[in-house]
Amino acid sequence: MAREKGGFWVGLAATMFYPLGWLTGRQRYQGREHLPATGGALLVSNHVSYLDPLHTSLFVHSAGRVPRFLAKNSLWKVPVLGPILRGSGQIPVFRDTADAQQSLAAGTRALADGKIVVIYPEGTITRDPAGWPMHSRTGVARLALASDVPVVPMVHWGTREVYDHYGKRFRPLPRTDLVLRAGDPVDLSGYRGRPLDATVLREVTDLIMSRVRDLLAEVREETAPTEFYRRSPEREAG
């Protein structure tokens, strides 16, 4: 398998992340064939644990690609992690500021440059007690419609059993099966070329996240809820 070149910082991250991934669970990868071998793609995932980015990184990297995450800008201030994020071309998100649109512009450029961009549209770890995806921000729709690239749904399941932030529990042993599954790209042909008004952005966001939710239902072998969980108060980026 030809591997996308990532440079020094991606190589450094890989030497750290693969052992950490092994220590925090047994990865069960499914659907990596849905990630294109070359060219841009938007990878859209649920978010149930702070371990998710680690395992998303390994899922994408093991497929021969380099992930570019949209992640909150405060992570760039973390020692060791900050230089890796900068050096590997990750994309800081400045929420609720005048710089917020810069994140979407940077994500669009990365997709146009043939990169795989990863986004967790919920904006944070789900607050749904049962771990289903929440009502999501519409930035994912802006990215998806601004770039004619595959929009690939993906899910994690099992990471919260290892590290539950809200439950304040970290339990790496015994090692847990972690399922990461990607699905067929979402067909957005009916929306392309339409004005990006609030209605279209909300419809596309919900369509993409419905595919993520359905994929998670398959992994969990359960029936998904028909409505997305909403936080209170609701804070949603337009």
Automatic annotation (TrEMBL):
It holds the Pfam family Acyltransferase. This is 1-acyl-sn-glycerol-3-phosphate acyltransferases. GO terms for biological process: phosphatidic acid biosynthetic process. SUPFAM superfamilies: Glycerol-3-phosphate (1)-acyltransferase (SSF69593). It comes from the Bacteria. The chain crosses the membrane at residues 6-25. GO terms for cellular component: plasma membrane. Residues 41-159 form the Phospholipid/glycerol acyltransferase domain. Keywords: Acyltransferase, Membrane, Transferase, Transmembrane, Transmembrane helix. The keyword Hydrolase does not apply. The keyword Transmembrane helix applies. GO terms for molecular function: 1-acylglycerol-3-phosphate O-acyltransferase activity.
